[in-house]
Amino acid sequence: MPIRYPNGKKFIQKRIPDKKKSDYKKDDSFSNRGMSFEDDIQESNEYYRVHEKAVIHKKPTPLQIVNVHYPHRSAAVVTEAYFQKPSTTDFNGVYKGLYIDFEAKETRNKTSFPLKNFHAHQIEHMKSVLSQQGIVFVLLHFRIHQEIYLVPGSCFIEWFDNKDQARKSIPKKEIEKNGIPVSTGYLPKIDYLAALDKWLHNQ
Amino acid sequence: MPIRYPNGKKFIQKRIPDKKKSDYKKDDSFSNRGMSFEDDIQESNEYYRVHEKAVIHKKPTPLQIVNVHYPHRSAAVVTEAYFQKPSTTDFNGVYKGLYIDFEAKETRNKTSFPLKNFHAHQIEHMKSVLSQQGIVFVLLHFRIHQEIYLVPGSCFIEWFDNKDQARKSIPKKEIEKNGIPVSTGYLPKIDYLAALDKWLHNQ
């Protein structure tokens, strides 16, 4: 049974509690810097689930397991495993019969959003989902400005595919123009479904 | 980059290569016995994906990570982690705009399918998905008979919810009556989307 806070919110143990903040800056290959933003999205997903608005989950971090020990009959301990790059986006689920698929990232940049934390195979996944008529988007968080934008997948894919030719990041102005602002609050913390409704309504 | 066989099929390392078959019988809390059935489904998913029929993935095994070492700047090694019970089903994705969600299990029983390998929170997840108009089902594999059935989620949930009152397993006859037979072959190995089409067509 999950441990819960008095307000019913699930207690989620941080993935790597003993990792120092300074470690994150050394290595760009993991997207751990987005952790608290991800936590907030997971809380919002929990709110949506409990209130029967949507069923959206974060996929577990893929690990390549190399060694497992069995000290007891019932407990298996993984003693050697390596982080793998995910082949899909982090979040997916169902909302009013629609298949929903998205990736969430944040930056401390003030004027543009770097694309380096998105992988080419994630973009391939987004394209495949679009061709199956799924709903695809990205949530981009400007941490300094405390602004979040929902950018439609087709738009984001266009930016990414032009990345090598033109630029390694997207100007904030362009995100403001093409994205839908996501309002934040107490419950849910990040109301991205409201932004999604706006987008779908205007299509 | 993933390693591939000459036929383009992805090489997927077995999760616990050094675990003996006899170990599985000791502990029912992990569903490792279904591994090769799962592999076949993942190959079928890969076939569907490459042929742009559907985008369906298995979720990574959820692990609670307790310790991580950083021997080099770029390589993180997980040195202590524990298997967690998944809170959702194993497979989900999108097919012709429809949200697809299912669990796959197998048995060596000849006349009935035991329900003990399904967890209550997986059934709760199925109910939530149904309430969002998602497509939910289970794939049940009778290994001795080499027969696979697609059982609609609503039907399976009914069986599971009656479990405590009545029985711990479902008679094969009842599965034959309510399920749709899944044909197997070379490519795809397990053509569950054909069975799904039959079911959706008759609804």
UniProtKB/TrEMBL annotation, chains A, B:
Recorded GO terms, molecular function?
crossover junction DNA endonuclease activity; magnesium ion binding; nucleic acid binding
From the Swiss-Prot or TrEMBL record, state where the protein is found: Cytoplasm
Tell me which Pfam families the record gives: RecU (PF03838)
- Coiled-coil residue windows: none
Q: What class of enzyme is it?
A: hydrolase
CC cofactor? Mg(2+)
Q: Which CDD domains match?
A: RecU-like (cd22354)
What catalytic reaction does the record list? Answer: Endonucleolytic cleavage at a junction such as a reciprocal single-stranded crossover between two homologous DNA duplexes (Holliday junction)
Job description of the protein:
Endonuclease that resolves Holliday junction intermediates in genetic recombination. Cleaves mobile four-strand junctions by introducing symmetrical nicks in paired strands. Promotes annealing of linear ssDNA with homologous dsDNA. Required for DNA repair, homologous recombination and chromosome segregation.
Descriptive protein name: Holliday junction resolvase RecU
Q: Which organism is it from?
A: Alkalicoccus daliensis
- Per the record, the gene is recU
